[in-house]
Amino acid sequence: MSVHFKVVERPNPRDLTLPNKYYAHIVNGDDITFAELAQLISKVSNLNYGSVVGTLATLVEVIELQLIHGRQVRLSDLGTLYLTLSSEGVDSKDGFSAANIKKAAIRFRPGQRLKALVRNLKFAKLGNNGTTAEEDEIDA
Fold it and tell me: Do 42 and 48 contact (CB within 8 A), yes or no?
């Protein structure tokens, strides 16, 4: 199975006077909801739907608590979640306070399994009619 992409025209953000160029743009399908994900897990495991929903909801709560306590959350082959900060610089260490912090973000570093998935992707260019041509398939 291939990941679909289309070709889009974009300006150079560093120099808008340069001519536009064409770039690949991934074509995403529909989002999967929490409930749909739980239903799929239930179908491929011994767990009933309610157990999966409860487990996933608890996982979210536990991840939140661990991130708040400054811990990185390693989820095996899936990857690692961690917090980062963005702040203003000040001239001295003593002059820095929490007020200098502008925002926090949650980052995700993929694990080995997801990295392998990305390395082994195949790509198929979508034509104007939304179909792919086999000769356009490209390995990553």
Answer: yes
